[in-house]
Write a structure and sequence with these properties.
heterodimer, A: 619 residues, alpha+beta, Beta-Lactamase, 3 domains, 7-stranded mixed β-sheet, 17 helices, 31% helix, globular, disordered N terminus, disordered C terminus, B: alpha/beta, two-stranded antiparallel sheet, binds guanosine-5'-triphosphate, binds magnesium ion, FUZ/MON1/HPS1_longin_3 (chain A), Mon1 (chain A)
Chain lengths: 619, 220
Amino acid sequence: MSSDDAHSSSSEHDSTDQNPNPSTSIDQSLDAIEGQLTSISLNHRNSPLPEPPIPPPHHGIGDTLPSDAHSQVEEVGAVEKSGSDVEVENSVSRGEGVLWRNSSDVEGEVEGQGSPSSSGYAGGKGTSSSSGVSGSGIEEISGDEVDQGEGGIRSGSFGGSVDSEWVPGKRHVNEDDASVSWRKRKKHFFVLSHSGKPIYSRYGDEHRLAGFSATLQAIISFVENGGDRVKLVRAGKHQVVFLVKGPIYLVCISCTEEPHESLNEQLELLYGQMILILTKSINRCFEKNPKFDMTPLLGGTDAVFSSLIHSYSWNPATFLHAYSCLPLAYPTRQAAGAILQDVAESGVLFAILMCKHKVISLVGAQKASLHPDDMLLLANFVMSSESFRTSESFSPICLPRYNPMAFLYAYVYYLDADTYLMLLTANPDAFYRLKDWRIRIEMVLLKSNVLNEAQRSMLDGGMHVEDLPVDPSPRSGSLSSHLGQPRPPPDSADRCKALLGGPCGLWHFIYRSIYLDQYVSSEFSSPINTPKQQKRLYRAYQKLYTSMHDRELGPHKTQFRRDNNYVLLCWVTQDFELYAAFDPLADKALAIKTCNRVCQWVKDVENEVFLLGASPFSW
Amino acid sequence: MATSARNNLNAKLVLLGDMGAGKSSLVLRFVKGQFLDFQESTIGAAFFSQTLAVSDATVKFEIWDTAGQERYHSLAPMYYRGAAAAIIVYDIASIDSFARAKTWVQELQKQGNPNLVMALAGNKADLEEKRKVTADEARLYAEENGLFFMETSAKTAANVNEIFYEIAKRLPRAQPSQNPAGMVLVDRPAVGSQASACCSRYHFFSYYHSDLNFLILFAK
Ligand SMILES: Nc1nc2c(ncn2[C@@H]2O[C@H](COP(=O)(O)OP(=O)(O)OP(=O)(O)O)[C@@H](O)[C@H]2O)c(=O)[nH]1
Ligand SMILES: [Mg+2]
C-alpha cells in the first residue's frame, strides 16, 4: 500500500526508450511515418496542392442499396478484429499511456482482488492521513482544456441537462492544412477512403484537404503493405490514431493527452455514425469504383459529426458504453413504458422516448436489444439535425450494432422542445401506423403527466452530492421526495463535513450498472462548476476508465489515486462500476466509506434513476 | 364555403428537387407562414398537413417534404408512391437544380400515373439578380411535359399559396354519383402500398379520409 503522499513526478518521460517492436520492417516504417508526420505537422507546404473539387457524380445509394431493407445481403469479413495490430510508437514520447498505470505521479493503489462485499467498499483499508499535495504535480493542462473548437461542456450534469451555447456545425471551413490555425487545433478527426479521397474532416473543407488526405493514405498503405496495420503513432506531443474499416480509413490527430484507447473508441463511434447514415453497403461503392467520392453522400451532416465529436468531451456515455436515464418517479416511468410496450408488440422494433440525451423509457420488440452505442449515435443524429424539430419525420437510419447492412425507418417526433419519440421499424410502409401510434402515445403521456414530470426533472437535475444520505442505514421505499424535492437539512453532527461539494469532500460520482448498461452521474456542483473543470474531470474519468479496462493488465478492481486536482476512487465489481472524485485533501478512509454510501444511495433510488424491468439488454 | 362532404379531399402531395432548392422553405411558408434564412437540410422526409379551401372543395394536403440530399434519392419512391400531386422545385439561380428537376420529372413520368398533378416551381424568384434559369425556358419545358409552372419565392411568399391552390383546383374531383361502385372501403393504406395502382380503369387516388379510415377509388 502506498503512502498518501502525492508523488508528483513531472510528466516528462524517458526519451531513451527503445522501440519495443522487434520487427525491423516496423522500425523502418516508424522512421518513415515519423518523417511523414513531421512534415505534416511542421512542413505543411510540402503537401501537394489539393486537387480541384470533383463534381459529385450521381452515385445514389440506389446504385447499390435496394430500398427494401430485407433484400440486403450480409457482407462478410469487411472488418478485421484488431487482435494482431501492431502498435507503432514514436520513441520520443513513448510511455505516455503507460505513465498512468505505472508512474508515481499519482498515488496508485491497484488491486487485483475485488472487495467481496456487495454493498460497498470493505472499509477503510490503508492509512487515512492526507498530507496534501506536493508542488510539482500535473500542471494545469492549460489551453488543452478548453479550446475554441471543442467548446465548453455543458453545465449541469454530464447528461447535458443544461445547454451551453455550443452550436453544432462545421467550424473554420476556410482552413486547410496550410493554415496556421488549422495546424494548431488540438484534435483533428479525418475520414478518408483507401484511395486517399477525403471523406470528412473536423476542421477545414474536405476538398481542400485532398493533399493531406493523400499523405495520410500513403502512411497507412505504406505500413499495411508491410503486413502491419498502423494503429498509433506518436510524434512529439501528438498522437495519431488510425482505424481501418474496409475501404474507409479514420484518423485522429490529437494533443489532448487522452489515452489512445479512448481516441480509438472515438474513431469507432465516428465510423458508427457514418454507418448509421449510410449503412455498411457503402463499401460496395468502393468495390465498384475505388476512387468513389463519398462526400456527396454525407451532404448536410456536418452538424451530426461535430456534435458527436463535441460529445467526446462531455458525454460519459461515449466511453462508458452505457446510457443514462432521466430521473423520474417510478410510476411515471412505468406509465411511459407501458404504452411503449403496447407499440412494441404491434410490430415496432424499438420504441424510444428520450429527453435530450437521457432516456425516459425504451422498449424493444421480443428479442431485439439496443446497444448503448447505437442509442448514443441515434440520439446524436436526431438531436443534431434541426430538421427533425420542424414536424414529424420518417427517415431511413441504420443501427450499426443491430444490423450494419440494413436500413431501419425511424419515425421521429418532438413532443416538446426536449422530449422526442423515436419509433423504429423495418417496414418502409409503416408511417401512417406509426403516426397513429404516436398520437396515442402522446395522449397517454399527457394524461399521466409524463411530459411535465420530465420537464421538472430536467430543471431539478438528478442526484446532487450534497444530498448524499449521511446515515448509511438502508432507506426504504420511494425516494422521489429525495431526487426532486427540497433537500434534507445538512447534518451538522456529521464528522466529515465537506468544505465544498458533498460529505467528506465528495465532489462528483458516476455509477454504472453493468447489468443494465446504464449509468447515473451526479450533477456538477461547486467546485466542479466551470466548463473547464468539468472537462478536466471528464478527462480524468476517461483515463481512469481506460486504466481500469486495460486489456494487457487485465481488469482492475479498485483504484485510489490522488493528484493536485482530485482524489479519484474507482471500484469495479461484477455488478457495477463506481467512479468518484473527491477533494484532493480528502481523507482516504472516509472517501472509501463515502463510496459505500454512494453505492447504497444509488441502490435506494435505482427505481428512479434507472430504467428497470425493461427487456434485458444483454450484450 | 359550399363544401359538401363528398368534396373533402385528402391529397398526398410530394415535393421533390435538388437539395437547397427550397422545398422545405416552400412548405413551411405554406403551412406555418414562416421563412428561415438558414433552413436546415431535410433528413429523410418530413410530413406536414394543411387544409386548403378551393371553390368547390376542401382539400387536406398530406405533404411529404423529401430530402434533396443525394443519399436519399433511392428512397424517393417510398414517398412519392401513390401521390396525387407533386411539386418539383428548382432554384432559379442554379442550372444544376433545374437539370435535377428535369430528371425528377422523368422519374415521375415513368411511374405511369397519368393523373398525377405535377407542378414545376422555379423558387427563389426574389433572387432576380442571380437568375440562371429564365422563366421562358422553364415554362416551355413545363408545357412540353404536361406540368404547370410558377415561379415562387418562399422568402417573399410570392406564389406560394397560389401554387398549392392551383394544385387543389386541378385535382380530380370525386364523382360518386357517377360511379358509386368505385368507392371501396379498405384499410388505411400505408405509404405507397398501392404501387400497382396505375391500371387504366381506375384513377387511383391514394387519398384516405383520416377520420373515416377509408380509401376512395375513383373511376376515371
Ligand atoms: N432568397 C431565397 N432563399 C430561399 C428561398 N427558399 C429557400 N431559400 C433558402 O435556401 C436554403 C435552402 O432551402 P431549403 O428549404 O432548406 O431547401 P430544401 O430544398 O428543403 O433542401 P433539402 O432539404 O436539403 O433538400 C435555405 O437557406 C433557405 O433560406 C427563396 O425563395 N428565396
Ligand atoms: Mg428540405
